[in-house]
Write a structure and sequence with these properties.
With 243 residues, the protein is an alpha/beta fold. It has helices at 3-9, 24-27, 35-42, 59-69, 104-120, 138-147, 156-173, 180-184, 202-220, 238-242; strands at residues 17-22, 48-53, 79-85, 128-131, 176-178. Helices cover 43% and strands 11% of the residues. α3 (35-42) packs parallel to α9 (202-220), α4 (59-69) packs parallel to α5 and α5 packs parallel to α7.
Length: 243
């Protein structure tokens, strides 16, 4: 059978997808032992995990990008879950990092705007998970800043205010939320979750992966494996199994 004929005889295979939208902590999530890679491994043969992490971005910029990533005509129907993971840059101190800083009230409004947009393209609240920024280990991050000739440009208490705002937005909008800032600080030495005081270490990636999966498992557990197991393919008539 020619490939053109085979294609005409079978339905187009469309993998469902999970969209990971965030800043550098999302962009880096497909690195070795990353939380995104862990999620993709769990969902192989069932779902594509799409990394749309943008290092350095804040919610002011993200809300402009989101409609370019997903619309009714480009992927909304097949999207089974979306994570929105911003705040580590928004919460930068205005005086020391004005380019990335977003005021607290605007940050909350931007999150709401993104949720409302997703709902407008028929991605319902139960498919959206907000993730708060992780806590900041100030002494480690200060070393990173000083090495670049900068002063400490973030504070953990400030990051916590943004995390609380993220949690409140989730409550107001009816989405799920993963309060990473609070959960990580239940461990007194939360610095072990961070590689440089801001970004996640191997342990932090594992922690986030486990916490996120506990929220996604119920949403995604019913997804079937795509295409039959190889032993179940009729080798004498593969078209009968595969088309």
């Amino acid at each position: 059978m020619a490939l053109a004929e085979a294609g005409a005889g079978g339905r187009l295979l469309l993998w469902p997808r999970v969209l990971l939208f965030g800043d550098s902590i999302t962009e880096f999530s497909f690195q070795e032992n990353g939380w995104g890679a862990s999620l993709a491994e769990r969902l192989v043969r069932k779902c594509d995990v799409v990394n749309r992490g943008l290092s350095g971005y804040n919610t002011r910029w993200a809300k402009l990008i989101l409609p370019r990533l997903i619309s009714k005509s480009t992927g909304a129907e097949s999207t089974v879950a979306v994570t929105i993971f911003f705040g580590a840059n928004d919460s930068s101190l205005k005086d020391l990092n004005p380019k990335q800083h977003v005021p607290l009230e605007e940050y909350a409004a931007n999150l709401k705007s993104m949720i409302q947009y997703l709902k407008s393209v028929d991605i319902t609240e139960d498919r959206i998970i907000l993730i708060t920024p992780p806590p900041l280990q100030e002494s480690a991050w200060e070393k990173e800043c000083l090495a670049k000739g900068d002063k400490l440009n973030r504070r953990n208490a400030t990051t916590g205010e943004y995390a609380q705002a993220c949690v409140q937005v989730a409550r107001d909008c009816g989405t799920d939320v993963l309060d990473l800032w609070t959960l990580m600080q239940k461990n007194q030495d939360f610095s072990s979750y961070l590689s440089d005081g801001l970004h996640l270490s191997t342990k932090g990636n594992s922690f986030l992966a486990a916490q996120l999966w506990s929220r996604l498992e119920k949403k995604l557990s019913a997804l079937p494996s795509l295409l039959p197991y190889w032993r179940d393919v009729d080798h004498t008539n593969p078209e009968a199994s595969l088309l």
